[in-house]
Amino acid sequence: MAGAESVITFRETQMRFGRVRALEQFDLDVRRGEFVALVGPSGCGKSTVLRLASGLIDATGGTMDRATDNVGYVFQDATLMPWRTVRENVELLGELEGMDKAERKRKTDEVLSLVRLTEFEDHYPRTLSGGMKMRASLARSLLLDPELFLFDEPFGALDQISRARLNEELMALFGVKRFSSVFVTHSVDEATFLATRVFVMCARPGRIVEEFRVPFDYPRDPAIRYSTEFSKLAGAIAEALREAS
Ligand SMILES: Nc1ncnc2c1ncn2[C@@H]1O[C@H](COP(=O)(O)OP(=O)(O)O)[C@@H](O)[C@H]1O
Ligand SMILES: [Mg+2]
Q: Do 37 and 89 belong together in one domain?
């Protein structure tokens, strides 16, 4: 991937909130089709990186350049509209973007099937499990085929089994769509399973202290999680995280 085009680039980026130095000398390149995971202690500025990436806030120093405006977001809180069915929630961004009705229907069918929610398209959010809500949230973001996905601990509230399942489904989606991603997580295992590269951040001020390249090809077999190579790499990342905390 060396030399491939970057979708998003941070250079010596600084973010201060009054006297709080949230980020300092933050450098990161995410190349097209790359799945980058960010891990770091609480408060080290991970969500701040995503807010900068989305353009929600502006850096107080350095630069952030993004090669696309087609950005999808998935947060831990799925924020589905309770009065809309799954299908209606998924269609929402298409409506807001003025996508025509036939196209909207076709895309909605496609993404509901990708996240395996076709059967539940007429259900209301309150009747869904946490994992299903998250899949609906993913489908909603997928509707506009984002080139860049920003994930802020999306599966953090799920039980272990649902989380592992969602990891596998996201992996499959990534295999099909090949969007670029910045995925924030507390779970080293999740980061190692999903990412092409894992970056470890330290706190106050937040910046990247270590980078790990994950050598496994996509699509990854869920069973790699039990391999020695995987355990070694995850162990090294966990150790770097411990030192950074
Ligand atoms: N709007 C804000 N105003 C003041 N301080 C903020 C604001 N947003 C974030 N911070 C501070 O910046 C630091 C990084 O926060 P955040 O990016 O949310 O960390 P993380 O997501 O890694 O837990 C924290 O010390 C936090 O309190
Ligand atoms: Mg956060």
A: no
**Per-residue model confidence (pLDDT) at position 236:** 98
Q: Which ligand sits nearest to residue 48's alpha carbon?
A: 1
User: Per residue in 109-123, pLDDT tens?
Assistant: 999 998 899 999 999
Both 202 and 103 in one domain: the answer is: no
User: Is the per-residue pLDDT at 4 higher than 80?
Assistant: no
Among 145, 168, 191, identify where a domain stops. 145
Our mutation pick for probing the ligand 1 site, out of 19, 38, 47, 199, counting the most ligand atoms within 8 A of Cβ, is 47
Closest to 25 measured CA to CA, from 55, 3, 45, 40: 45
Instruction: Please report the pLDDT score of residue 53 as a whole number.
Output: 96
Q: Confirm whether 76 is domain-assigned.
A: no
Using the atom order of ligand 1, give the atom closest to the CA of residue 50: 17
Instruction: Report the nearest atom of ligand 1 relative to the CA of 49.
Output: 17
Domain residues for 97?
81-145
Q: Domain boundary at 98, 120, 145, which?
A: 145
CA of 201 to the centre of ligand 2 (A): 12
Number of domains the chain is built from: 2
- d(C-alpha 85, C-alpha 80), whole Å: 9
Q: Where are the strands (E) in the chain, listed by range?
A: 6-17, 20-31, 35-39, 61-66, 71-75, 148-152, 180-184, 197-202, 207-213
